[in-house]
Write a structure and sequence with these properties.
By secondary structure, the protein is mainly α. Helix content is about 75%, strand content about 0%. The longest helix has about 30 residues.
Length: about 160
C-alpha cells in the first residue's frame, strides 16, 4: 500500500480498496455490456432505448473512474484491463446475438441487479471499516443504478 491522506488504518484501507477493485471490475464489464446493447438494439422502442443505454454507459464510466480513484487515494493499485475484467467480473457474459429491444431491457435489468448486489456488499464492508467517504460514494452509485433499474423495468410493463 502507498501512503494516503486517509486517516484509516492500513488494513482498513486495504480491505476497502480490495472491494472497490471488485466493483471496478464489475462496472467495467457492465459498461461494455451496455454499449453492446446500445449498438445492437432493434425494435419499436429503439428511439427511446438507444439514447437511454448511452446515458447509462456515460454515467457508469464516471462512477468507474470515481471508484478507481478512491481506491488509489486509499493507497492501493487498481486493475482494470479487459483481460483482467474478463477473469474477475461477477456478471455473466452478455448474449451478443440479442437484437430485440425488450430482450436487451431484461438482460440489462438482471445485470444491474447483480452490479447493485456487489455495491451493497462493498458499502457494508466500507461501513464496517469506518470509511464513510467510500460509503458515501457507493451510496450515490446505488441510488442512481436503482433508478436506472426502475427505468428499465418500467419500459417492460404496461
Ligand atoms: Fe452511440
Amino acid at each position: 500500500m502507498y501512503k494516503s491522506p486517509s486517516r484509516l488504518s492500513e488494513p482498513a484501507r486495504q480491505k476497502v480498496a480490495e472491494t472497490l477493485n471488485a466493483r471496478l471490475v464489475d462496472g467495467l464489464d457492465l459498461h461494455s455490456q451496455i454499449k453492446v446493447a446500445h449498438w445492437n438494439i432493434k425494435g419499436p422502442q429503439f428511439a427511446a432505448l438507444h439514447p437511454l443505454f448511452e446515458e447509462f454507459a456515460v454515467s457508469l464510466a464516471n462512477h468507474n473512474d470515481n471508484i478507481a480513484e478512491r481506491a488509489v487515494t486509499l493507497g492501493a493499485r487498481v486493475y482494470g484491463t479487459v483481460r483482467h475484467v474478463a477473469q474477475k467480473s461477477r456478471l455473466p457474459e452478455y448474449p451478443q446475438e440479442t437484437a430485440r429491444d425488450v430482450e436487451h431491457v431484461k438482460l440489462l435489468a438482471e445485470r444491474f441487479d447483480t452490479y447493485l448486489e456487489g455495491l451493497r456488499e462493498s458499502r457494508s464492508l466500507s461501513e464496517e471499516q469506518g470509511d464513510t467517504d467510500s460509503v458515501d460514494l457507493i451510496t450515490g452509485i446505488i441510488t442512481e443504478f436503482e433508478k436506472h433499474g426502475w427505468f428499465l423495468r418500467a419500459s417492460l410493463e404496461g
